[in-house]
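ESCALATION

Customer reports they have been waiting on this structure for their group meeting. Please prioritize. Original submission:
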Amino acid sequence: MFSPHRSASPVLAQEADFLLQGYDYALPGAQIAQYPAEERGASRLLVMPRTGALALEHRTFAELPSCLPPGALLVANNARVLEARLLGRRASGGKVEFLLLTPLPLLLAHAQSGKQEEFSAEAEGLVRCGGSIRDGECLHFGAGIDVTVLETGQFGCRRVRLSWKGDLAQAFAATGHIPLPPYIKRSDVKEDGSRYQTVYARQDKTGAVAAPTAGLHFTQEMRAALAAADFGWAEVTLYVGYGTFSPVRSQDIRHHRMHREYVEIPEATARAVASARRQGRPVLAVGTTSLRALEGAAQQCGSVQAFKGWTDIFLYPGAHFRVVDGLLTNFHLPQSTLLMLVAAFAGRERVLAAYAEAVRLGYRFFSYGDAMLIR
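Update from on-call: job pushed to the front of the queue and completed.
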């Protein structure tokens, strides 16, 4: 029987838990999912307990309602992925690629207007081309989008001025590409435009550069089944940044500087979480991004409250979880901050043992892969 872990102590950390090499595992390349399952919701589901004996269950995602603790409140990330990858030309005619990193709502909030529906705003992004890019250089993309490089930062990130005409989201949709993760070794196709979005992604929350992938398994039918079984549902917004794929470069993970991401927690969600806690019902995060939003807000405010702002919370073994009792997630990259988060939640050795079993049984890994429920 599942019970909330709010009174439980943090997972005790050993020195090995702080070493980057402790988050490595063997994964055959054939198990890195390059395409989504033929039908949304047709993935496998590995179920593991957060504490106690490591008794793994091998289920299907269609069985999720029967795997959840009674009365659980599910909290999901409703951010929508922007077609943030642009392909264009330099003034010299050479090819160039730009990936917008600034969440679209923040960019629009600071936009300056000109004549004839012309706008501009400063933003952060990644630029890639065959040669070096000079500060001050202007890059040209489709749908009236221009990018002027202002300053070069760390790890290829650049401060730029983005110029456009009309509706910026529509301009990106017209000329941009879905920014598939680097471990998907193919160009995006039409199907990715729908399958790399959750069914509950909101149009007014467009701006993420990566999908909250645990949510990709949900269908409208599953949403209805959960509601019929009296499971709660609430939403947060975390605009997933490219930093989610940024490698940890420190051998001692405690020295890693975590990327920051913009979070919005509406009042209705804060009330739903508070109500679940009062009633002793478990709070289950749908994905690591939802967990980061809830725990990041609680870290800054003392509890989950209505919140808009940045979080750079880094969760690794020894971390204290104030809000979340269960986690639905995908399988994550070796040595990634997401794997460290899951290890903080359920214990590094336990998680790696579960991963080894998933590898042995042929589960599909990463964004378009199978799911894992920690309860």
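Sent to customer with the following note: The chain has a mean pLDDT of 93.
Escalation resolved.
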